[in-house]
Amino acid sequence: MRKRSILCIFIIVSTLFFFTSVHAEEQKYCPLCSMNLKMFWKTSHWLTFSNGTKTGYCSIHCASKVYQKRATDIDRWEVADYSTKKIINAHNAYFLIGSDLPGTMTPVSKLAFYSPGVAKTYQKEHSGSIGSFDDALKGAIEGRGEDMAMIKKKVAKMSSMGKKLTGKHGCYKCHGEGGTGGKATGWNSKEFARSMDNRVSIKEAIIGGSHNMEGYKGKLTEKELHAITIYVWTRRAK
């Protein structure tokens, strides 16, 4: 009887873990910056909260922002192993910090490895220092100013590209020149700000369409989609 109870508990726990994993894998974009998680999988971080939800972020930069607001709600912190792409416990990982390998949302990369040996091999080839999860998290928080300066420049560049693309794809015909309003809601209106309160909602509306607007799924590259999203977001009412 006891063995049967233990087996039932194991099956329930395994099932819950399975569905949590499936849900996480179905998430397509970072909820903070809307970056495509598949494209930035090797630098992704995954937070499981006390309510059981699991959310992925493109980088430790974005995940650390959530940590600073909801530290007590985080039950588990996982990260992608840079070499294998497998999701591992972040607290057990070895982080290669400041190598010449590119980081995501930061000029100072912080890449996770399960194996200290593999981390050292990458260090020999790409320099940097090896530290703990706490070292990487501290670096992400303290380096926020430098990160934001870099991000600001990239956002300006992407927004400029997005402006050209919205014109090219005829967005102004309905939304008005510069998205100021026409047959469709203006991007700078309070109504738009209420319905599109984050970048992911804007990106999903562009892909799938909304109301009378046709969707652009398969018509834009990921970079073009992100550029348009950034531009529309910059036009949005504060």
Tell me what you see in this structure:
The protein is of the alpha+beta class and 238 residues long. It has 2 domains: 27-142, no CATH class; 155-235, Cytochrome Bc1 Complex, Chain D, domain 2, CATH 1.10.760. Helices cover 49% and strands 13% of the residues. The protein is built from 9 helices and 7 strands; from the N terminus they run αββαββββαβαααααα. The protein has helices at 2-26, 60-70, 116-126, 133-142, 144-168, 172-175, 190-195, 199-208, 222-235, and strands at residues 45-49, 54-57, 74-80, 87-89, 94-97, 110-113, 129-131. The strands form 2 sheets. Strands 2-1-3-4 form a 4-stranded antiparallel sheet. A 3-stranded antiparallel sheet has the order 6-5-7, with helices on both faces. A hairpin with a 4-residue loop joins strand 1 and strand 2 (54-57). The longest helix has 25 residues, at 2-26. The relative contact order is 0.10. Residues 1-23 have low confidence and may be disordered.
